[in-house]
Specification:
The structure holds 2 protein chains of 2 kinds.
Chain A (H helix, E strand, L loop, with lengths): L3 H25 L9 H14 L2 H36 L1 H6 L8 H12 L3 H24 L4 H9 L4 H39 L4 H10 L3 H28 L5
Helix pairs in contact in A: 2-10, 3-6, 3-8, 3-9, 5-6, 5-8, 6-8, 7-8, 8-9, 8-10, 9-10
Chain B lengths: L1 E11 L5 E12 L4 E5 L6 H8 L7 E5 L4 E4 L11 H5 L11 H7 L15 H14 L4 E5 L7 H18 L2 E6 L2 H7 L2 E6 L4 E9 L12 H16 L5 E5 L1
Chain lengths: ~250, ~250
């Protein structure tokens, strides 16, 4: 967890940036295409909730993101011993799966959107699959670097088979995988918004599409601020879970 | 009594040639003896300990024993996601048969039962590994160069702890080390091994008092014996049986 000093310096930086923004775009450059006027932005921050039915959209997007991450992680934890066995036995095949890293993930978002259109379930399923794959890539990356002494100790104490993987080997890398999950969290946010944007589904992505259609410059920014705050909140929850549950490294 | 008979191990080097790592290693470990193998790095000490612990298969020879052998790696692996008690009882089949209080008190972990080892010292983690080994009621505990990364104070504490555990639980120890002083302080018997191939060429019977204090390190005789052993260690030629007493 960040200490008080770092929180204070972050708040100070935010205040300074806000001050510069207000001075620059309220008084020096009130008419521009770079950033909206501060007073319009603050008005928009309140208006978008009603104009774009933002509460419902926010609920749709956040439900899909966080529920899918939780479900994917739950399935992943159950499947991890089997995956690790697979990686150990078929290292070359697993290595060749890396080719998918070069495939832009938003292509799959387009594909899903093409197949299923504006479907809440399809969007949810897409998020679960992407999250699960991201966790599996992390597992593959870290399972090659497990501390040898854990393996030796567990085997020597008679722990073998699935128990060896679930009770020792997976446990030893779980904090690292959870750290990657924080990055996956940002990634899923972007992908889900792309999905919603393409399929014009209910959610932040759909709202963005409408705002773009209306040329609502202030709304584009105020929605971004709201999304940033939600991502920040999600990140704080991750940090707390990391600190309390996955405290070892 | 445990017998190690003519253990051999080969491996293929990068060029694909077969290398004889261990050549017909034979020795015995008595009921509650502390035996050390001192050898230069790369002689195959760790491999030998892994073979004795059942973690690797030998290419030749056999091990005759009738009990459990526990291996403690050079980096003691207390599991950081488990607290001290959970670590000690890890993989124990019958938890009720373990006198956990006695074990924890002996290794000096009383008051730390619910602590987690992830941010603790190497000495603390070694104590956990030792306690966990004792919970499995072993015939022999193999220590793979455990003092290598410890600071001098911790090393001194752990050396005494090993002797204390040996005395109170009657468990035999097999230490692999490159450090003559550690081996001399701890052991009842020392085997000196050379490399390429790994082969025992000298057996040293250490006849020091059962209760050994750290003061022994500074005694003239200890230093003299250490120097003698150092000569043997470097010579790679001697083929004799030595008796050392202070």
């Amino acid at each position: 967890m960040p200490n008080n000093q770092s929180i204070i310096s972050k708040v100070k930086l935010a205040v300074v940036l806000l001050f510069v923004y207000v001075v620059l775009f309220e008084f020096v450059l009130p008419v521009n295409k770079i950033l909206p006027k501060p007073d319009l932005l603050f008005e928009s921050l309140i208006a978008v909730w009603k104009d774009y039915n933002l509460l419902q959209s926010a609920a749709a997007t956040t439900t899909i993101i966080y529920l899918s991450l939780a479900l994917a992680y739950f399935i992943f934890v159950k499947a991890a011993p089997l995956l690790m066995k697979f990686f150990a036995a078929y290292n070359e095949s697993a290595e060749s799966l890396k080719i998918f890293r070069y495939f832009p993930a938003f292509f799959f978002a387009i594909l899903f959107s093409f197949w299923f259109g504006d479907s809440f379930l399809a969007e949810f399923l897409f998020a679960v699959i992407v999250s699960f794959l991201m966790f599996s890539f992390s597992l593959y990356r870290y399972s090659g670097g497990i501390n040898e002494s854990y393996k030796l100790t567990a085997k020597n104490l008679g722990v073998a088979g699935n128990s060896l993987y679930s009770k020792v080997l997976f446990k030893s890398i779980q904090p690292k995988i959870f750290d990657d999950m924080r990055r996956t969290h940002y990634y899923i946010w972007v992908l889900i918004m792309i999905y919603e944007f393409i399929s014009n589904a209910e959610g932040f992505g759909g709202v963005y599409r409408q705002a773009l259609n209306y040329n609502d410059f202030s709304a584009l920014f105020s929605i971004a601020v709201i999304i940033s705050l939600l991502i920040l909140l999600g990140d704080l929850v991750y940090k707390i879970i990391r600190e309390k549950i996955y405290f070892w490294q | 009594m445990m017998q190690i008979k003519e253990i051999s191990k080969d491996y293929n080097n990068r060029a694909g040639y077969k290398i004889n790592l261990l050549k017909k290693i034979s020795f015995e470990i008595g009921g509650s003896q502390i035996v050390s193998i001192i050898a230069p790095a790369g002689a195959g000490k760790s491999t030998l300990l892994k073979i004795i612990s059942g973690l690797e298969l030998p290419d030749g020879g056999e091990i005759i024993n009738n009990g459990k052998i526990i291996f403690i790696p050079s980096e003691p692996s207390s599991f950081p996601w488990l607290n001290v008690t959970q670590n000690v009882l890890f993989a124990v089949e019958d938890e009720k048969s373990v006198d956990i209080k006695k074990i924890i008190n002996t290794v000096g972990l009383e008051g730390y039962e619910t602590h987690y080892p992830h941010n603790k010292s190497l000495g603390f983690r070694f104590r956990i590994s030792l306690a966990r080994s004792l919970a499995h009621k072993p015939l022999l505990i193999c220590l793979d160069d455990p003092f290598n990364k410890m600071d001098e104070t911790t090393k001194a504490e752990i050396l005494q702890l090993v002797r204390k555990v040996n005395h109170e639980f009657g468990t035999a120890f097999l230490l692999a080390s490159g450090n003559i002083s550690e081996a001399l302080f701890l052991s009842d018997v020392i085997y000196v091994m050379k490399k390429n191939p790994g082969e025992i060429f000298t057996k040293v019977n250490v006849e020091l008092p059962r209760d050994r204090s750290l003061d022994i390190f500074n005694s003239e005789k200890f230093l003299q014996h250490r120097n003698n052993l150092e000569q043997i260690f470097k010579s790679n030629e001697s083929n004799q049986l030595l008796n050392i007493s202070i």
